[in-house]
Design a protein that fits this description.
Chain lengths: ~60, ~725
């Protein structure tokens, strides 16, 4: 059972990594606009190499 | 308005050397709005950051100091069809945001710790019935302790702090038994671990904290959501003032006005600050202040109050010192008194806690004594007593009320009611008497066309469409009737007289009687009686002529469209209904008659209203006050619980326990329905928690509780009350 001496601290470390990930996300404001985040993923005007992507509003308007 | 609002007056420095402003945005309907709004603002010069928060409909814009952008932001939004309103976050809201972050951090810590400890605990439980070695078990227990102790110290702070505050004030609340339970569970587990025992309760303590934090975080999030909507609406209404700088007029937010500033108030605008009229004459509608619907004539030297509507002409005001206003001073004095006299209604959960804590602690002490008498060792007796405390630790009890609260405030939110006070639901459920204010509460906040039925529909439509071109309050009331929302082209307004335009080659005029060619008294009399029931009180007429056709449109305060049904429904529930109004008795009588409310009083001053409410309270009644006027603010504070329409004066809104949206009175009925149902569910939940204890405590006293049983029982009872609470989410 000596393997536990490694496994338990590893599990603990992974748990802590998850916790710090959550705290970081919270701190960087990722929980402040939950509905918006769900909708932003649908917009495609952050595509690389799109010449008009520097002016998202313009493109968006012309495309509708 | 031609003079654009300068946003830089609202700007606050951000961390990275830019300045930023928060705007409440009107008109967001779909996901595409995010890109359109952010895109429109981002292309302005000097803009550093644009971020729309879709959840609370607010836009944060940051720009470099000195960039020309701020003046262009609002026009850029307008061009896309959105209206932005500078939003100054209230301190209470900022504090709540900080509190929410703290709770979520605690929740995260408790959640991750509970998961990891549970992992170890399950291994121990299964090992205990198979072949775990004592060394491995000790190792697992110490690892659990390593996780649980710091996590509980961090995540338990909200409970420990609140329990400490209660104990210092020599009372108890639900957090006291929670804190004792958690501390004892952790302490005993530590001692048992040191003694190489088979069982420890680290997981129970953390699970308990986790469940409770879920309840609190949800409760908090719901309250913040309603607060955010109310805050946005306040920003939408927040008035700007036209201040003279030399001879020029600049739009500034009301918050930066100082005494002795000179202001211009045009017809159709609300007076932005208390002041003395320097020049100009007009009619002022004080109904939002006093409830009085008869307009007051003002000229140079007259005093006007913030929130009054300027009807007729442009006024130049000098802002008076904040403390120099007799009316506001009186109201604030009354308010202080009423608010301090308000009996702090004891919350249901705290009342339960006050009975619960001594009973539980006594049971634990008796258990210990009983086992000692029965000849058990001191160690076993103490362990059993602590097990009783752990299993009775009021997880279900502490969730019983908040869970219902979350679900009920969600239901109220959908019914357009927003709660200001955390315990409003419990107090609303007890109401047996409802006191209404008249102006703006039973009636619509804005006047409406009263004789639409007796007018030629085509003529009325023309008049309404022409009215779109005027800023006069009567015209604005008429404009609401317009089905086509496009103003006529080429309409010209003659200040103080009316508007005119050519329609199909024939001139149409809207305005005063003389302006429309109704000069003689007989002509007027022939037009006016067309409105049945006109007693001349509080009714104004606006005239419309189209060629030879002439009509008089009556504009009057009207009852909310569903007022009669709602009042009837309230009466059917056995509620005692009354009207207390600051308006003249002649204006109150017809409203009371139409609604069938027998007990009404008019011409009441704020102090009189309080006196009546105190008298009702003295008879042991629980009074719900529904009002919107500044003069209602003290009575709202004095009543057991209070409700305001969102159109109310700021001070009034701040005093109300809940505010409602829209022009229907239905939310009043919904509020009472939902709160009564919530109250019933809360009581049910408390009994469920008691039932759980009745079953669990004998097992604990018998010394049969293992950590596995404790974990199952606690989670089971928490789930049970939560599921029961969800029944409160139906629409009212």
């Amino acid at each position: 059972m000596n393997v536990l001496v490694y496994l338990v601290p590893m599990a603990l470390g992974l748990g802590l990594a998850g916790l710090f990930g959550f705290l970081w996300a919270l701190k960087s404001g990722q929980y402040s606009d939950i509905e918006g985040a769900a909708l932003r993923v649908l917009s495609d005007d952050d595509l690389e190499g799109d010449p008009s992507s520097s002016v998202p509003g313009e493109r968006n308007r012309s495309s509708r | 308005m031609s003079d654009a609002l300068d946003l830089s007056l609202y700007a606050k420095p951000d961390q990275d050397g830019t300045v930023g402003v928060d705007l409440a945005i009107e008109g967001i309907t779909c996901a595409a709005c995010i890109n359109r709004i952010e895109g429109a603002v981002r292309q302005l010069p000097g803009i550093k950051d644009v971020r729309l928060n879709y959840t609370n409909r607010r836009l944060h814009v940051a720009w470099e100091e000195g960039a020309p952008a701020p003046a262009q932001i609002l026009p850029a939004l307008e061009s896309q069809g959105y209206h932005g309103h500078p939003f100054v976050p209230q301190r209470a809201e900022q504090e709540e945001a900080e509190e929410a972050r703290k709770l979520t951090r605690c929740l995260g810590v408790a959640g991750f710790a509970a998961m990891n400890v549970m992992l170890l605990s399950v291994s121990v439980w299964s090992g205990n019935v198979t072949d775990i070695t004592p060394e491995t078990r000790d190792f697992f227990h110490w690892a659990s302790a390593l996780i649980a102790l710091p996590a509980a110290a961090y995540a338990g702070r909200p409970f420990f702090a609140s329990a400490w505050r209660a104990l210092k004030a020599r009372t108890t609340n639900m957090d006291v038994p929670i804190s004792i339970g958690v501390t004892l569970a952790l302490g005993m587990s530590l001692v048992e671990t040191a003694n190489h025992a088979e069982e420890a309760y680290f997981d129970s303590a953390l699970m308990l904290l986790f469940f409770l934090l879920v309840g609190r975080t949800l409760d908090h999030a719901m309250r913040r959501r309603t607060r955010a909507v109310a805050g946005n609406l306040a920003a939408l209404r927040a008035d700007t003032a036209h201040r003279f700088v030399g001879d020029e007029i600049v739009s500034v937010p009301v918050s930066v006005l100082k005494p002795d500033d000179r202001l211009l108030v045009r017809a159709g605008e609300r007076v932005p600050a208390d002041g003395v009229v320097m020049s100009g004459s007009s009619e002022i509608d004080d109904s939002l202040i006093t409830g009085e619907t008869l307009r007051r004539k003002v000229a140079a030297g007259a005093i006007v109050y913030a929130g009054s509507m300027n009807y007729a002409g442009a006024l130049t005001l000098k802002v008076t010192a904040a403390g120099g206003n007799a009316l506001i001073d009186d109201i604030e004095k009354l308010l202080d008194k009423a608010a301090s006299a308000k009996s702090k209604a004891m919350r249901l959960a705290d009342r339960a806690a006050r009975i619960y804590a001594p009973v539980v602690h006594l049971t634990a002490a008796l258990t210990c004594a009983g086992w000692l008498l029965a000849g058990a060792s001191t160690h076993d007796a103490v362990i059993t007593a602590i097990a009783v405390l752990i299993i009775t630790c009021p997880c279900a009890l502490a969730l019983a009320v908040p869970a219902v609260q979350v679900v009920a405030s969600g239901a109220l939110f959908r019914a357009n009611v927003m709660l200001n006070a955390g315990d409003a639901i419990e107090r609303l459920a007890e109401v047996d008497t409802v006191v209404f204010d008249k102006t703006g509460t039973l009636t619509l906040p804005e006047p409406r066309v009263a004789n639409a039925a007796s007018l030629d529909p085509a003529l009325l439509q023309q008049a309404a469409r022409l009215a779109l071109s005027s800023r006069h309050p009567l015209a604005m009331a008429l404009a609401r009737e317009a089905t086509a929302r496009v103003p006529y082209e080429g309409a010209t307004e003659e200040p103080g007289r009316g508007v005119r335009v050519m329609i199909d080659g024939i001139e149409a005029r809207l305005g005063s009687a003389e302006f429309c060619g109704v000069a003689s008294g007989e002509q007027k009399a022939a037009l006016v009686p067309a409105f049945a029931g006109a007693n001349g009180e509080g009714i104004s007429h606006i005239y419309f002529s189209y060629g030879s056709k002439v009509a008089a449109v009556a504009i009057a305060q009207q009852l909310r469209p569903d007022a009669v049904e709602v009042v009837t429904a309230l009466r059917e529930r056995g509620l005692d209904l009354r009207i207390l109004s600051g308006d003249r008795s002649e204006a109150v009588a017809p409203v009371a008659a139409a609604l069938g409310i027998a007990q009404w009083q008019g011409a009441l001053k704020p102090a009189d209203k309080i006196a009546v409410i105190e008298e009702l309270k003295g008879q042991g009644r629980r009074v719900l006050m529904v009002g919107d006027g500044l003069n209602d603010a003290p009575s709202l504070a004095a009543a057991h619980v209070s409700l305001s329409p969102i159109s109310a004066a700021d001070l009034t809104q701040a005093q109300a326990d809940a505010v409602f949206l829209g022009e229907r009175l239905q939310p009043v009925l919904d509020t009472l329905t939902v709160s009564r149902r919530a109250r019933r569910l809360m009581t049910e939940n408390l009994w469920l928690a008691v039932l759980y204890n009745v079953i669990a405590v004998p097992i604990a006293i018998a010394g049969l509780v293992t950590p596995l049983i404790a974990a199952l029982a606690m989670s089971g009872s928490s789930l049970l009350v939560t599921v029961n609470a969800l029944r409160g989410g139906k629409r009212a």
